[in-house]
C-alpha cells in the first residue's frame, strides 16, 4: 500500500506543479492529495512537501485549518481567471467555453465560501 500511495503522491506533485503553468489543471487539489498520500505512506516525503519553500507554508496552513490569506485568494482568482479567459478566447467550441466558465465559477465559489480566510498577523 505504501508503494501505491507514494506513487499517487509523486504523480499528484507532478500534476500540481504542471497546474501552475497550465490552465484548467488545478494545483492545490493535487498538492493536497500528495500531502495526504505522503502523510500515510512516507513521513520523509510528507516533511519534504510541508517544508518546501514554494508551497509548504500554504499546505501547512491549509491542513492545520487556518485557511488561505486574503492576498493569496485574490492572486489565485486573478491567475485562474486570467488563464481561463485566454483559454476561452482561444477556443471556438461553445461547450468548451461553457465548461471552462462552469469550472471557474465552481472553484471561485468554493474558494470564497468554503475555504477559511487566514488572518495575517502583523
TrEMBL record:
Source lineage: Bacteria, Pseudomonadati, Pseudomonadota, Betaproteobacteria, Burkholderiales
Keywords: Membrane, Transmembrane, Transmembrane helix
Top-level taxon in the UniProt lineage: Bacteria
Statement: the UniProt record of this protein carries the keyword Membrane: yes
Name of this protein: Inner membrane protein
Any one GO cellular component localisation term in the record: plasma membrane
Signal sequence, start to end: none
Stretches that traverse the bilayer: 7-24, 70-89, 95-115
PANTHER family reported in the protein's UniProt record: INNER MEMBRANE PROTEIN YBAN
